[in-house]
Amino acid sequence: MNLLFCFHPFLEPKLNKWKQNAITVAAGNEKGQELNQLNYPNGIFIDKNKNIFIADHTNHRIVEWKRNAKEGQIIAGGNKEGNRMDQLYFPSDVIVDEQDHSIIIADSDNRRIIQWLNQKQHILIDNIDCFGLAMDKHGFLYVSDSVKNEVRRWKMGEYDNEGIIVAGGNRNGNQLNQLNYPGFIFVDDDQSVYISDQNNHRVMKWRKDAQEGKIVAGRNGKGGNLNQLSLPHRVIVDHLDQIYVVDWGNHRIMRWCEGKEEGEIVIDGNGFENQSNQLNYPMGLSCDDEGNLYVADWGNHRIEKLEIIL
């Protein structure tokens, strides 16, 4: 599931803080294709056992990094780039269907959503310029299309149709009913869809069946002020409706409360180098059931764990 109930219910939102010195939990051995390396990791997914599933973008593979492991395990792709069933081509996102333990992948440059189960592959959706994936508790799969500037939804197992547009679909633009290169997505309990509207430097929230969205982060153009974002990537939302945004161009993680004019910095990149308190163009974001944050530190080819301060 893409629903994140990962923050302590008895804590006031403002008290949730994380240690600024991160722990590297996957790779961090420069970029490469060995099992202890990554090459520009994109989307990540944390399962209930705290195993990390990584869209290892430029290695054209999905890697599972078990908790406390020194190296990862290739569970999809890894056969160079290509469009055979056993190959991937710049995968951008990955989620795990914990009902059947299958891996669902946005195989971006092959323009397909592909499912891997026990090393067997099945194309779910074809001819789609996919970027981000999400799944809700009702059994729907959501996919962002960065070229059609829309998000579509399919009932799990029913992919023989075009799906339903749930956000965008009105060409690219910056109006409330438009998107401009939608990336990662998140779906809450009410089936509201949160979208990193990358080229508009904002995060949009589209309620179920809405004709237009609402800006919930950003809205003041590209920049590094507290009321701005720069090419936002992964967005996740906690059960208190606080919105966490990977602010890619500013090398930081932001937290926004819906309705507020500006956000606050959760994790600062501190100069985008590779020290434990630095991020270098972060991309993916997830969390575990204890509230620890995990960041795909794209430019440093590693996954960082930020421990919550209780």
Question: How would you characterize the overall build of this protein?
Answer:
The protein has no helices and 26 strands. By secondary structure, it is mainly β. Strands 2-25-24-23 form a 4-stranded antiparallel beta sheet, with no helix packed on it. It has a 4-stranded antiparallel beta sheet with strand order 3-4-5-6, with no helix packed on it. A 4-stranded antiparallel beta sheet has the order 7-8-9-10, with no helix packed on it. Strand 8 and strand 9 form a beta hairpin. The model is unreliable at 1-13 (pLDDT under 50).
**Biggest sheet layout:** 4 strands, antiparallel
CATH class: Mainly Beta
- CATH topology, by name, is Neuraminidase
Mean pLDDT: 93
Give the CATH H-level superfamily: TolB, C-terminal domain
Indicate the low-confidence ranges by residue numbers. Answer: 1-13
- Taken from the alpha-carbon principal axes, the silhouette is globular
**Helix-strand string:** EEEEEEEEEEEEEEEEEEEEEEEEEE
Rg over C-alpha atoms, rounded to the nearest angstrom: 18 Å
The appropriate CATH architecture is 6 Propeller
Strand portion: 35-45%
Structural class: mainly beta
What is the total domain count? 1
In the sheet with the most strands, the strands line up as: 2-25-24-23
**With helices defined by DSSP (H or I, 4 residues minimum), what is the helix count?**
0
Helix content: under 10%
Strands, count: 26
Give the N-terminus to C-terminus distance in angstroms. Answer: 25 Å
